[in-house]
Amino acid sequence: MRNTNGFSAHKILLLVPFIFFLSCATGGTAVSVSSPDAVQPRWELVDDSVGGLAWYTGKVSRPRMEFHALRVDLSDGELRIAVAGGAYIDGGGLDTTLSIKVSSFVRENNLLAGINALPFDTVSDREGEPRVNVGLVIADGVMISPPHREFDALVFYTDCTAAIMAQPAIESFENIAEAVGGFRRILEGGEPVPRVKNLTARHPRSAAGISPDGRYLYLLVIDGRRPGSAGGTEAETALLLRALGASEGINFDGGGSSALALRFSGGDVRVVNKPVHGGIPGRERAVAGCLGVARK
Q1: Which residues contact 238 (CB under 8 A, 6 or more apart)?
Q2: CA 156 to chain centre
Q3: Which of 26, 76, 232, 269 gets the most CB atoms within 10 Å of its CB?
């Protein structure tokens, strides 16, 4: 049977998925590659009104993993980094740290994006509970949580530069605007650090990276603990950060805490990955320290 334009029905059926693929090949539709170091990101603006914020979704076939990445232009004068140790009680001080989901962190603080960062005590999906950050948190120049002797941190200075360094090596907080701890560095000088090369533990991951010229910050989440995505090792996470454009990288808290939330055109905030808390895909964990991006 033919339609009035002369195309056969089966040709129309073939065209529809092809057109759909072309229209969704970037941004929110995952593009599959063979390995982490084969990723070639196709960045797409999260919101057309924010030129310095772009995201990319991808899949890796060996090993099987799905990931989401955000690229932040640190040279964009309209953007600023926002760090929090958790939720705050009205009238409470900066050191009043309560559990909060990353999506709530973005929504309630009118942010453009957010990701979980450093490890913490007491795991649950309930917001508003007391939390203790394990490592450094500095927000607006004020230290909320002290350094941890074994872990590294992502530091943002008052001159708009960023660095990854060992938390005990931070001797002065005078020129630090924001800082958030994580676990340890996984990428240095464009190469995975020797420590990670023989590690085989595979988990959902959250991580951050910095481009060689310091212009871009990369935020990355790798899904895991579900059939479609097995998670990543620290070495694979480092390779993904490098493929995105980073030369330096740090591994944040992962597992069920891994979540990346974005605010899209129209103000809609949603978690773009699929967190797995308590073995339930899609259930978001309430965390502590978070890293976000906001308009100035």
Answers
A1: 186, 187, 192, 193, 196, 249
A2: 16
A3: 232
Q: Distance of CA 84 to CAs 179, 207, 238, Å?
A: 9, 17, 25
Q: Which residues contact 84 (CB under 8 A, 6 or more apart)?
A: 100, 105, 109, 137, 139, 289, 290, 292
Looking at 6-20, 85-99, 131-145, which range is the least confident one?
A: 6-20
d(CA 49, CA 293): 14
Which of 87-101, 173-187, 222-236 bottoms out in mean pLDDT, i.e. has the lowest?
A: 87-101
Neighbours of 211 (CB within 10 A): 18
> Whose structure tokens read 């070495």?
235
- Map residue 50 onto helix, strand or coil: coil
Q: Which pLDDT belongs to residue 90?
A: 63
Q: How many CB atoms lie within 10 A of CB 214?
A: 15
Q: Which structure tokens are listed for 229?
A: 């995505």
251 burial (CB, 10 Å; 0-12 / 13-18 / 19+) is buried
Residue 194 tokens, joined: 């020797």
What is the arithmetic mean of pLDDT over 251-266?
97
Q: Burial code of 77-96, b = ≥16 C-beta within 10 A, e = fewer? A: eebbbbbbbbbbeeeeebee
